[in-house]
From TrEMBL:
The keyword Transferase applies. It comes from the Bacteria. Keywords: ATP-binding, Kinase, Nucleotide-binding, Phosphoprotein, Transferase, Two-component regulatory system. The lineage of its organism: Bacteria, Bacillati, Bacillota, Bacilli, Bacillales. Its EC number is 2.7.13.3. InterPro entries: HATPase_C_sf, HATPase_dom, His_kinase_dom, HisK_dim/P_dom, HisK_dim/P_sf, PAC, PAS, PAS-assoc_C. Signal peptide: none annotated. It catalyses: ATP + protein L-histidine = ADP + protein N-phospho-L-histidine. Residues 407-612 form the Histidine kinase domain. Residues 87-139, 215-267, 342-394 form the PAC domain. This is histidine kinase. GO terms for molecular function: ATP binding; phosphorelay sensor kinase activity. Residues 140-211, 268-339 form the PAS domain.
Amino acid sequence: MILTGNELLPKLGVFKKLIDVLPEFICLKNEEGEWLVANEFALQVCGVDRSSYKGLRAEELSCFLTPDTIRRCHETDQKAWETGRPIKIQEEVLQKDGSYIILELIKQATFDDEGNPLYLFVTGRDITQHKAKEEELSVALELLESVLKGTTDAILIVDTKENPIKVNHSFEKLFGWKEDDLISGRVDTDVIIPSEYKPESKSIMSLLAEGSTVPSFETQRVCKEGTKIDVSISFSAIRNMQGQVIGFCLIYRDITPQKKAERALRESEAKYRVIAEHSKDLIAVADSSGKLLYCSPSHEGLLGLTNGIDELNEVLFSRIHQDDWEFLRATFAKARSQKKPFTFEFRLKISSGDWVVMETNAVPVLNEWDEIESFVTIARDITATKETEELIRKSEKLSVLGELAAGVAHEIRNPLTSLIGFAQLLKESDEEMKDKYIGIMLTELKRINDIVGELMLVAKPQAVHFENSSLKDMLESVVRLLDTQAIIKNVQIQLNTFGDIPPVYCVENQLKQLFINLLKNSIESMDKGGLIRLTLIKAKGNVMVEIEDQGSGIPKDRLEKLGEPFYTTKEKGTGLGLMVCYKIVKEHFGQIQFESEEGKGTKVQVKLPIYPLSVV
């Protein structure tokens, strides 16, 4: 039996008590849009007064519905009546607290047998939380897509059966396989795994499927063209809302350059270790505080030690000569501040009990923050070399003294002639003349004594001992000694000092030999006489001595070879003089530079650093 409209409405009222307990939207309207029956959920979410809603249209109700919401409701109601088919919509409904809920509604129009309109059934549910999760999922998917596109790492997403679901552009670029080839099944994902690593890969995927965690590890994979590359693979399981594993994400990072560098470094380390292990030089690595981290075996042979680096750390510094301690401390302090390679010498007591001179080259190793991480030092015994150099220096000194002797003899002969003459006159002179002659004789004797004293000072052997000395006094002494030789050659030496010249930390006798050699070369180059300007100035932490002559000059092609042993521009020279000069300047941490033009003369600049007493 089919119920008419007037018969159906009372029957629906019977079921209202049943539908009031349902958490879904249920409402019955007529063709005019008047509310006939609604359950408790519908009345509550729309804010409708349950005692006075029947027979009223939405715009007549006292409720939360906004004019826009009511307008859309009428439009969709009309569409449901016109089409006779279910209309599904989503509507945001304002709540009392100012928030919104989202209702998903289905509107179904009903008609009697003659096609006359009966009622509009509106049913629905609150999908607010569902929509929120959908939005979260959408954001997550967008973020995932952004990550897939933006990362430089290759990403492969597979299901639990290892079927590919997604690969990013970096994967395609790294391995050469397109996403369509993999997802369509035309190419299996195993294609990137070298045959020797396939058992390893299967084992890892099995562990992941069982819920075990597998840390990232390094292995190899193969590209489309057949090239093997080193990769680091990170694994992560993909789980559903119930925590079940539904797939896996594999992230590949190309580490081929790093692996090549590591292999090259290992090979390089092996080569250098062979060199270090078999070198006679003492090769060591020390931290910034001076503690030894590595020492080559040559240390044990030279020092007579057998218990390795621990014993060496205890013994080595006690074997260094106590007079060199302050020098070494200051040298390393300066190196830590300048962060540059440096060279130094010190005396070391070896297993035989003898003292040897060690020349050490040290290089600071800097970390990424430009801090000194360690020092690499290479030291060698130069005792024999130092003895040879000293013999050369003495030989050169004797050569210089021999050449000076002629000038000194000439200078001494003049006062001696006077002395002989005055001695003869004394025999026949009265007392008044005797006093006058004796005064002249004493003056001449003092002059002879000064000349001989200067010559003896240069000739006298001295220990190599650094101390603060006046460079001005040194140069004045050298000028006095060479003045006679200069006069013979019709050469004038002019010494000019500018400003307050501080003392230099030096071996005085060595610097005197340096300037004697340089000035003597200038005098000998001036066959036609002339002027030698000797200038002493202070310049940016250094004391500079400049010697400028008016001699014959040095050809350009010979300037570069100055200082080489047995290379000379003199007809009968040995070339050892300038070699000694270069060596003395180097030992004093200074610089020497020559400028010359043929026919116009030569200029020599010697820069010597000014060191405080506590810094070498």
